[in-house]
């Protein structure tokens, strides 16, 4: 089991092309321990904005009567991938991992696989 800081450091260091990562509380929009980002990419702002994405998808699923759970949400930009991985189990309710990838330097399938492993090992 890894604590939040260790898990985020592992994601940033081990996932090829990762430029930013955060654990985000989608009830408040707060990024808990964001790592990475840049002057031109504020990870706190991005994390807060993506809480709206998660909430909107959950609302839509509720309106449609869908019973499944969101595993992850992928947003592709021309030069970046934004991966939102909802935390399941062990007190992770209301949290998601937010990973930003450089599209030219990353393997999306591998990043999703690695993030899933990090999420499974995360102790919140």
CATH architecture: 2-Layer Sandwich
Computed Rg: 14 Å
N/C terminus separation? 9 Å
Broad structural category: alpha+beta
Shape: globular
Overall average pLDDT: 92
CATH level 4 superfamily = Dynein light chain 2a, cytoplasmic
Counting DSSP E segments of at least 2 residues, the number of strands comes to 5
Level of helix content? 25-40%
Strand order of the largest sheet: 2-1-5-4-3
Largest sheet: 5 strands, antiparallel
**Proportion of beta-strand residues:** 25-35%
Organism: Streptomyces spinosisporus
Protein name: Secreted protein
Protein architecture, described:
It comes from Streptomyces spinosisporus. It is a single chain. The chain has a single domain (4-121), classed as 2-Layer Sandwich (Beta-Lactamase), CATH 3.30.450.30. It is built from 3 helices and 5 strands. It has helices at 4-14, 43-64, 108-121, and strands spanning 18-25, 30-36, 72-76, 80-86, 95-102. The chain has a 5-stranded antiparallel β-sheet, sandwiched between helices. Helix 1 packs antiparallel against helix 3 (108-121). The radius of gyration is 14 Å and the shape is globular. The relative contact order is 0.24.
């Amino acid at each position: 089991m890894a604590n939040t800081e260790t898990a985020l450091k592992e994601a940033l260091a081990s996932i090829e092309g990762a430029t930013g990562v955060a654990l985000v509380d989608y009830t408040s929009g707060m990024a808990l321990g964001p790592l990475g980002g840049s002057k031109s990419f504020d990870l706190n702002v991005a994390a807060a904005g993506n809480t709206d994405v998660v909430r909107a998808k959950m609302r839509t699923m509720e309106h449609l009567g869908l019973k499944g759970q969101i595993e992850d949400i992928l947003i592709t930009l021309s030069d970046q991938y934004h991966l939102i991985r909802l935390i399941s189990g062990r007190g992770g309710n209301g949290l998601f991992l937010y990973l930003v990838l450089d599209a030219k330097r990353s393997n999306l399938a591998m990043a999703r696989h690695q993030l899933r492993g990090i999420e499974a090992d995360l102790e919140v």
